[in-house]
Amino acid sequence: MAVQPNQQFNMDPSSQQSFVRFFKSLPEYKE
User: Fold this and answer.
1) Is 11:19 a contact under the CB 8 Å cutoff?
2) Rounded to two decimals, what is the model's pTM?
3) How far is CA 18 from CA 1, 29, in A?
4) pLDDT score recorded for residue 9
5) Please, are residues 16 and 9 in contact by the beta-carbon 8 Å criterion?
């Protein structure tokens, strides 16, 4: 599956929120 980075983040708000929630739950995530 070859997905361009810009397409990867071109998603609906609910999916984006789920992605952000998942991303922030990663141990590697630091703010």
Assistant:
1) yes
2) 0.42
3) 21, 15
4) 58
5) yes
Residues 22/14, Cβ–Cβ less than 8 Å: no
* pLDDT tens-digit series, residues 1-23: 565 555 555 667 788 888 888 88
Structure tokens at 15: 């999916």
What is the C-alpha to C-alpha distance for residues 2 and 7, in angstroms, rounded to an integer? 10
- Residue 26 tokens read as 């990663």
**3-state SS of 6-30?**
HHHCCCCHHHHHHHHHHHHHCCCCC
